[in-house]
Predict the structure of DUF2892 domain-containing protein.
Amino acid sequence: MTKNLGNIDRIIRIIIFIVMTTLHFSKTVTGTIGLILLLLGGIALLSSLVSFSPVYEIFGISTYKEKDLK
């Protein structure tokens, strides 16, 4: 599994996780839609932690650059 997410994509996915979990736990969005938001937020967080997106891999997209590590 090669990295294909750059730092900006990773930060955006972490923000998405924070927003979606806040919406769910503040009971702003409840029921099935709330659970779906929580699941999607978890997937966004997981992909940002490992710097890999399966969707990017399918479409051949990569925002990762070697200099992102420095």
Summary: The longest helix spans residues 31-50.
